[in-house]
Design brief:
With 238 residues, the chain is mainly α. The protein is built from 9 helices and no strands.
Length: 238
Amino acid sequence: MTATLLDILNAGWGTMLLRGAGMTIFISLCGIVLGMLIGIGGAVLKSGRSRLLRLVVSLYTLLVRSVPELLIIYLLFFGTVQTAADLADWLDWDDLMSGVFPMLVGILAIGLISGSYSVEVFRGAFKAIAPGQLEAARAIGMSRRQCLIRITLPQLFWYALPGANNVWQNALKDTALISLVGLVELMRAAVLGAAATRAPLTLYLLAGILYFLIGACSQGLFVWAERHFGRGMRGAGS
């Protein structure tokens, strides 16, 4: 006999789904921050003069984009699980393998995946900044640091917002794959709840609703940020 929605909520699975949603958001945020750092660094190197560094960044983006996200997660997990297990035994830290290690694998995987796409996002944003603005700033005596803080960075993040929004939405969905290495995020919580209550359709629908709400709220924040921080920016490159 399958459980009703009220039975599922009374059994605490609603709270479990919300906790899983919180973990999904946390993994996505940490991963996207790492990915943005990789993206900015990669964009700088790919726009630089060193052919070797440009080749390294190009190989990284090509490799990560060509390999399925799940395979990247498995490679990271099984490539480091023995080392993590030995470290857990040495530190006598039981929670390392049950929670911390899968979480770190998830953050690193999302960071590497989102970083491969962020490289081109930020490279395009760098190119969108009119060179004449930097030339004019240097002509009036601004230092490189002042140019970076007052001219480059504000425009860089504004130009990168639309592309970063797409990368973020993909990162949110990619977190569902982390459930396969034992992390209890939203998808894993739904799987556990479906097995316990024998009501998979209800649990997966609830998970889908939470994913939709997270994505919709994120979309709204990006739209607001683009409008708010874009005041006075439109036409700046002309």
